[in-house]
Design brief:
14% strand; amino-acid biosynthesis; lyase; alpha/beta; TIM Barrel
Length: 265
């Protein structure tokens, strides 16, 4: 079993969903991103998505785009992302990288996989890579013991869901809304149906992301999904802060609210 498999075995035994938190490496700086991720873990995040800042983030909304731009302007490189993974994994929490495919291909698929595994990372979330085009990643991930987290959307056909579920490992990322990432006033009405469709073709864990921004929304999603994925709302805590400590305090408070909401569901 991978670390992600072990996590979901534990949360299922505890009759709760896992809380997955996303932050970009290098935002606002590499050192600050490490401290911010540690704050999330200390306050209840079960699995960390370390974002690899990218110059053309087609799926990301303005909040994550702004954070990525800050990280890139500060000179954040792939090697920095790997070091943030190393620091996060040392906290004892499963750590994956969320990245568009181009940076992986540019570094070399096997080299990227090897470096990620050596740093303690356990997998990749690849929003713009579909299993049909992922043969190189499939081979490299299996060779280095990494999980393959693929995405499905409300527009995915049943056949596409089955194919994606078969190729995925760790968990399947269900994007509950059509559009880019970002906080929303209410969770997507499409999410329960999307998860139900996935349940019909797989027993692998399903995480729901895009839009969750508070404990009440997290509780809604936790009622039908194996994991609640939160990104923009956590990033916003740091974007809106006037100094690092204020950002960390806001991050801690939001993480506790999300976790508390999920435990009430």
């Amino acid at each position: 079993m991978s670390q992600i498999d072990e996590l979901f075995a534990r949360t299922r035994a505890e009759n709760r969903a896992a809380l997955v938190g996303y932050l970009p490496a290098g935002f606002p700086t590499v050192e600050q991103s490490v401290r911010a991720i540690a704050t999330m873990v200390e306050n209840g995040v079960d699995l960390v998505e370390v974002g690899l800042p990218y110059s053309d983030p087609v799926m990301d909304g303005p909040t994550i785009q702004s954070a990525a731009e800050t990280a890139l302007a500060a000179g954040t490189k792939v090697d920095d992302v790997i070091e943030v993974v190393r620091a996060t994994a040392a906290l004892g929490v499963p750590t994956v990288v969320m990245t568009y495919w181009n940076p992986v291909e540019r570094r070399g698929v096997d080299r990227f996989a090897q470096q990620l595994a050596e740093a303690g990372g356990v997998g990749l979330i690849t929003p713009d890579l579909i299993p049909d085009e992922g043969a190189d990643w499939d081979r490299a991930s299996r060779a280095h013991g990494l999980d393959r987290v693929y995405l499905v959307a409300p527009s995915s056909t049943d056949d596409r869901m089955a194919l994606t579920a078969e190729a995925a490992s760790g968990f399947i990322y269900a994007t509950a809304v059509m559009g880019v990432t970002g906080q929303r006033q209410e969770t997507s009405s499409l999410a329960p149906e999307l998860v139900a469709r996935l349940r019909a073709v797989t027993d692998k864990p399903v995480g729901v992301g895009l839009g969750v921004s508070n404990g009440a929304q997290a509780a809604e999603v936790a009622a039908f999904a194996d994991a609640v994925i939160v990104g923009s709302a956590l990033v916003r805590c740091l974007l809106d802060a006037t100094d690092e400590q204020q950002g960390l305090d806001a991050l801690a408070a939001l993480t506790r609210d999300l976790r508390a909401g999920m435990e009430r569901s």
